[in-house]
Every structure is written in C-alpha cells, then in structure tokens.
Amino acid sequence: MGMEIKGYSILGKIAKGGMGEVYKGIHLGLGKEVILKKLSPNAPAGFYERFKREASIMMDISHPNIVHMYDYFQEDGSSYIVMEYIDGYSLSELIHRYKQIPVYLAAYIILKIAEGLKYAHSEGVVHRDIKPGNVLLSVTGEIKLTDFGIAFRPENHDSENVTKQGTILGTPAYMSPQQIKSSKDADACSDLYSLGVLFYEMLTAKRPFSNEFSNENIKKIMKGRYSGIRKYNKRVPFTLISIIRKMMHHDYRKRYKTADEIIRILTKFISFRFKDLNTVRKDLALIVNGDDSEVKFSENGVGVTSGLFERLALYRYPDLFIAFEVGKIGLVTVFVFYILFFSVRAWFPTLLLSCMDLGCKYGIANIQVENGNLNNKKISDPGKIAVSLKNLHNGNEKNYTLQGKKRYLKKKKIILRAGEYHVRMMNHDNFTESTVVIKPFKVFPKNEISLRLPTVVSKPVNFDISVYDEKTGKDITSGAEVSFREKNGNWQKYVPEMTLYNGRKYEFRVSSQGYLPSFSYEADFPFWIRSSSLKIKLSPIKTVVYFDVPPVQLDVKINGENFWNTKLGEQDVEKIFLSKKGEKKKIYCTSGDYSFIFINKKEEIKIEKKIFVPQYDKEVHISFEKDGGDELCAVLKINNVQK
Fold first, then answer.
1. pLDDT digits (tens, 9 = 90+) for 132-190
2. Assuming Cys at both sites, which of 81, 209, 286, 369 could form a disulfide with 37, CB separation 3.0 to 4.6 Å?
3. 76, 87, 129, 147: which is the annotated catalytic residue?
4. 129 has catalytic annotation
C-alpha cells in the first residue's frame, strides 16, 4: 500500500471490522513480516481497555505454541499491536478442507494447543475464546494459539472494569457452562472444556452444540447433552472419547483441572504409533503446504491435494484396534449380563432366604395383573399399572410398575416381610383395593397375588390445533388444511367441531400454500387427559440459489455467516466454499434481502453483492465474470422455475 507506520511498511489490509483493521506489514529495519492490529480512535472506551489489556497479556507471555507479540504503540490517535506473522491458515480451514481430521493428527494438534494453554494458565492467563479460527497452522508445521482479545487474569477480576459480572464473552458453541453464566467465572478448566469441543469437532466435522444463544441450546450445554462421537466417526478409539467426555463434562468439578493430564495421555497415545513426534510436525507441514493446482475432489466435493491421501491415511486409527476394543467390551458385557441376569432372577431370592435363615420372617410373592383394558380395541396403549403393597403392621410400603400389551402382566419373586398387606392398584382413572396375607417362605414357598384391572372408558378431549410459520412465528392456522386419523384408520379432514377421545392415538398431517407439508405427527391422549393442544410449525418453501464455478477459489459469507442450508427442508448447515475445480453448488433461502460476500484472501479479492431473493417460483443464478477493468464481479440472473 506504500504506507509506513512507526517503522513498519504496510503491505496490505487483511481484514476490517467496525472498530479496527488488520494489516500485513514488514519491519523496515529487520525485514521481518508482521501483523498489525489497529484499533480505531473512535472505538468506545471499553474496546480501548480490552485492546490494551490484550497487549499487556501478550507482552508477558512467550511460548512456541502461542503467537508472539513484538510491539504496542499509539499513532495518530489509533492503537496498534504488532504480532508475528504466521504463513499458513487456521484450523477451521483445515477442518473445512478435510472434514474429519485423522485421529493421530487431531490428537497432535490438541496436544500442542494444550501445551500452549498450560503455559498461559501457569502465567495466570485464561484465553476464554478457544475455537478453530483462533488456532493457526504454519507451513513449517507449527501450531499457534492466537487472539487473546477477551483473555483475562482471574486474580485481577476484583479490579477488572472491562468484564462485568453476568457479561457473556466468547463463542457460544465452544463456551463452558460457567462461562455462559458469566465470563468472569471462566477459569483454566473452562479453556480445557473449549479445547474438548474443538477436539470433538476435528474428529467428527460436527460441533456438539450450535453457535447460538437460544434457550434450547443453552439448556443442552448446561446439561451436557450432545451426540456421541461414534455416531459420526466409528474410527475414534475409546481412549480419546473418554478424554473428550471428561474435558467437556458439564460439571466443572469433574473436568481436568490442568492441562498436564491431557498432555500426558495424548503424548503416550501418539507415541505408541509415532515414536518421534517431530515426524508428525513434518507431515503436518506437508499437508499445510498442499499445492492447490493439484487438488482432487471426492464425490461430496471435499478437496484433497494429490498425494496427501496416503499421508493422511497414516494418521487414522487402525481398524484392527477398533475391532479389538469393540470385541473386548462386547464379550465382557455379555458375560456380566448373563451372570447377573440368571443369578438374580433365578437364584437370589430363594438362596437369600434359605442360607440366611430368614424364611420364618419373609416370604416370596408373585404379582399377576389381568389387564381388562385390552378388551377395548380402540385403546392404543393401556398405559402403566401402579401396584402398591402397604404392610398393615409397620406401615412400610413398596411400589411396583407393570407395563405392556399382554393380557396378563407379572412381577415375580418379590421378597416381602410376612404379614397382612393393603394392596392398591391404579391405572389412569381406575383403581382397585384389596387385602392379602404374605406367608413366610418356610411355610409357603410362593404367595400368588392375583389382581384384575377393569376396563376404562374413553372420554371426549377438548382439543385445539394451531399452525405457525417456522421462520416468523406467524399464525397461519386459517389457511392450513389439517388431516387426521386414528391408528390404522383412514385419513379425513379435521374441523374444530369434531370430537377426539382420550385413551386413543391419532396422527395428524398439515399442509398450506407456500409451505412444505408436515410429516405425520402422532398424538397419544392418555386417559387422564381432558384437554390438549397441538402446535405445528411449517417451513416456508425456499428459493434455490445456484453458484457457478468461479475462476478462483472463493469463500462465501451470507448475511455475515459462513455456514448455510444446502439441503431443502433440513436444519443442518454447511460451510459454503467455491472451488475453481469443483462443481456448481446450490443453497436454499427464504424470500428476502441478503448480503453476499465472496472472499479470496490470497488473491486479495472481496466481492460484495446485495441480492433480493424472490419467492420459491423463481431460481437465482450467480456467476462470476471480469469487468472492463479486469476486476472479478458477481453477476445475478433470476429465472422462472420450470414446472
């Protein structure tokens, strides 16, 4: 750009935000390439304090796995941080290129990040924003943790005026439960939690939680509810699954407190296959240096440089090891199951009373319930039957639940103290009561308790159904057509005047002009239900947007998001990446205004395009051409959908 700032020559702008810019430059005296982060003089005081704090923290730390800071200064009212330049790309791009990272390579990357975090934590620094975009991979195979913009020192939080109690800083998908409650509660094990999420994402190409502050997502994070790794990748060993579970435990007391244990386990795991870890670093360098001119594409459009398939295969966990792990666990499980099952069910009650000489005080009872509800063919599910036995002598009560669609339900070999019992049986609105006597085992080996549950009668249900637009939440019930049927019955149109009954199971289908039809929705009305409502959300039919193959590689941002829906009617999203040697791609959008940005950092290309996406009866085509000034531009074309 020909501009000089405080002894640095600016080579070009890398990124721009609302409060500052990032430049690539060169130190005029040393000829060393650097990165300059600039904070605008118009930035609010809070941003200035946070920027200054980042500089203060990075100035105090120095580690091979943390990006090094060289300088901090102010010029013309702006503040600058000068950091080392890493020739390579971020971990997020590696995941995008290769999807599931091979086991040993992923473990090596986590190991090096953990070493950087161990040092930072020893210096009293908590990063608070561990994610793929903040991990850099160099062409020499180095792994560097960067962006300490929201890092802090917990011991200084009493005087901290940047992060207030209750404030949330970070990226939702990677934040620990305590960080979500308050960013000031984040500590070393909170960073290790985020590292576990990153580990999960590298192995599965999926994030365990979505990147949004919705109530549903926050609840999942707080309770640690996420899909198991083996659901997406069968090649991950149980050793790593166990590590990730502990790193990501929702209860911070059950997580690793320091990175030492993680480093020890991963070092041992990797060294079993690769005696020299320097070999892994060299191979990572070759992968980062992949030549784009030789990219081959698989059926799903993922690009891998020619010759790297074999190198990546070296870092997969051997199928033989996986088979051994599964087989060993399976044999032990089957063995233990059979021992416990037959011992407890067949021998334990009788053996206990015989060997311990308790046969004079206790008896064995078998409960059998005849379920009269099965006589009513309209009842889809007879429900649970609760049986309680209360000892009339000491007041002790035992409760049992029987469930099934058999005519006779049984509960066998129950040990009870001998004596008189009050028996109460309940199912929905019906209950029966009786009295039985349990005789001692030595007098009478088995006491048979026979009960009969009378048939319940179905009653009308006050029922209401509502239909909403999934995107806007608008009530579209008036324009929707609802069909319903009883189990195995015929479909018929539903109107509010119709009567539905409890104790039965119904199916509903909903359709409306301009929306995708709903799948069959089952509603089971138990006998205790007197009123019920059903709310169904319909997804608007989306417009398809096609991207032609560009002359250069392009990353795509839509309304500031890198990920978008690429399948009609599905919620999963994928990162949009256009390759010059790939295929035409398409996404789906609802009608409205959109901001499209096409980026190639290497070629310094940034194309911004404002587009109005019409209704679903149209389709949008975006192609890429060079204008008269040899600048690449996006060309928009809208066609009618061929019926």
1. 999 999 999 999 999 888 888 876 654 454 445 445 677 899 999 999 888 788 889 99
2. 81
3. 129
4. yes
